[in-house]
């Protein structure tokens, strides 16, 4: 029996564990993480799908397109199923507003209704942005979606172990394949200098009259989720502080209020700050590490930056493909050994 440990229980770890267990039901798959559900970065994210090649460095355009389309199709299927509410997924349309013109985003042929804003539309907004897009995409409310994934994993009897890993060597005795979905944790566990935190802070409010999302190029965004709206934001490279900063909060509030003055009537719910696990490129690949005479096979899937919710299903499917190739390799070795005996 091949023993598999998926390390990490954010949206990437849960999705990858589910894909692997669904594809290989007879394997023993265990999830190991030191934080779960609302203690993960994934829990706080706004969850809007808009992964643009320009901000996802080092990933081949064809690979990114595959991840985007696979994720989009997966979430679209959920949106038009009878479990959309439980999974916390929904379509949402909205505006992106800029002070200068820019190339169309790479996801423009994946989302629906993508178009440029007219001059007349641009005048609606207080700061009179010079350029903008409109499109229909979707959000994933990870607080609900991760509970939904956890339920599916429980149904498949996948056990969860709460434990902090310092080195994958700790797992070499009890597992044959490790699937590494530890997000920013890779900095310490893998000594990966390519991974860098991009701090983001946000305010959750209740303002049910706001139905569209808005993104501007001056650090202001609003993303409706089911019952709340996420107001952001900040992008602070190499800042590891996850406590809420009151100056940042004030900046976010003033910028959002300027764009949407009716927010003055909103009920403020909670503040949150988290670290986008940024890596160029996002790491989806296999590796073999030797510890003495033990060898551990690893499938990496981490470093999704500000797009981990959007790309979670696409990279999980890619990681599962790589996992299946490793498994074939092990099975072929076993067959060769048996035929020699
Ligand atoms: C402010 C903000 C807004 C965002 N908005 C969006 C958005 O609109 N759309 C979008 O797609 N993405 C967004 N993101 C990005 C998204 O949140 C991340 O890309 C995504 O959550 C990464 O998921 P993950 O599973 O890799 O990491 P995480 O959610 O951080 O999970 C990592 C897991 O690994 C475990 N782990 C780490 N180290 C160890 C260790 N040593 N031992 C054991 N376990 C370990 C953790 O406990 C956790 O379970 C946003 C992020 C922020 C901060």
From TrEMBL:
One of its GO terms (cellular component) is peroxisomal matrix. PROSITE patterns: DAO. Its main location: other. One of its GO terms (molecular function) is D-amino-acid oxidase activity. D-dopa binds at residues 221, 276, 306. It is found in: Peroxisome matrix. This is FAD dependent oxidoreductase domain-containing protein. It comes from Adineta steineri.
């Amino acid at each position: 029996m091949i023993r598999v440990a998926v390390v990490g229980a954010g949206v990437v770890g849960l999705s990858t564990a589910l894909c692997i267990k669904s594809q290989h039901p007879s394997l023993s798959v265990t999830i190991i993480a030191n934080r779960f559900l609302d203690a993960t970065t994934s829990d706080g994210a706004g969850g809007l799908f808009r992964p643009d090649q320009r901000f996802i460095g080092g990933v081949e355009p064809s690979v990114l397109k595959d991840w985007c389309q696979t994720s989009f199709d997966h979430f679209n299927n959920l949106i038009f199923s009878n479990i959309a509410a439980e999974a916390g997924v929904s379509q949402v349309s909205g505006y992106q507003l800029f002070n200068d013109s820019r190339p169309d985003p790479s996801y423009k042929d994946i989302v629906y209704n993508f178009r440029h804003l007219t001059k007349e539309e641009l005048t609606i907004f207080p700061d009179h942005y010079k350029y903008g897009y409109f499109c229909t995409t979707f959000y994933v409310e990870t607080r609900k979606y991760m509970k939904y994934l956890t339920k599916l994993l429980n149904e498949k009897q996948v056990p969860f172990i709460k434990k902090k890993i310092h080195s994958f060597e700790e797992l070499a005795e009890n597992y044959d394949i490790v699937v590494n979905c530890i997000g920013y944790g890779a900095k310490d566990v893998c000594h990966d200098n390519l991974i860098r935190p991009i701090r983001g802070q946000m305010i959750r409010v209740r303002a049910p009259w706001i139905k569209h999302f808005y993104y501007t190029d001056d650090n202001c965004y609003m993303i409706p989720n089911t019952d709340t709206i996420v107001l952001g934001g900040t992008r602070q490279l190499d800042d590891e502080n996850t406590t809420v900063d009151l100056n940042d909060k004030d900046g976010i509030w003033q910028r959002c209020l300027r764009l949407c003055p009716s927010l003055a009537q909103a009920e403020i719910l909670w503040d949150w700050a988290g670290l986008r696990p940024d890596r160029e490129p996002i790491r989806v690949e296999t590796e073999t590490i030797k510890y003495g005479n033990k060898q551990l096979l690893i499938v990496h899937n981490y470093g999704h930056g500000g797009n981990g919710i959007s790309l979670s299903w696409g990279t999980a499917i890619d990681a599962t493909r790589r996992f299946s190739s490793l498994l074939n390799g092990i099975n072929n070795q076993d067959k060769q050994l048996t035929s020699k005996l």
